[in-house]
Amino acid sequence: MGREAKVIGLDTTAIIDIFKGNRNIRRKLKNIEEPKVVTQLSYLELLFGLDRTLKKHKIEEMFYDDFFGSLRILPLDRKACKKASDIHWNLKSRGKMIGRFDCTIAGIFLANDIKKIITKNKKHFQQISTLNIITY
Predict the structure, then answer these.
(1) How high is the pLDDT of residue 1?
(2) Tell me: the pLDDT tens digits for 94-109?
(3) Is 62 exposed, middle or buried (0-12, 13-18, 19+ CB in 10 A)?
(4) What superfamily in CATH does domain 8-134 come from?
């Protein structure tokens, strides 16, 4: 891999908390100057949590559409798939399994040389030693 990118990845938990107006995440983001990026998989994970027939969820979906439209979105490409698979098998060999969405989100970030991520889900992501976890 090349040099570490000077951007920070936002995990799905951070995006949800931004939507909810969580003061801790807003304060944390205010103090971070680096550009933020998101993954296409986080968008899917967010949509899985929405019953889009409900008005309140349609409002939430519009927020996510605007939010993702304002940031660089990293795709799930072959390089990211291979990285996610490597993470999965490394963790499995150590008996430290985490969810496949989390493995894949980490794989997308690492495939793009992004090692810093903001998440509330420290327990899962700290199992991946190549990530620098920023919590709030």
Answers:
(1) 47
(2) 999 888 999 999 999 9
(3) exposed
(4) 5'-nuclease (3.40.50.1010)
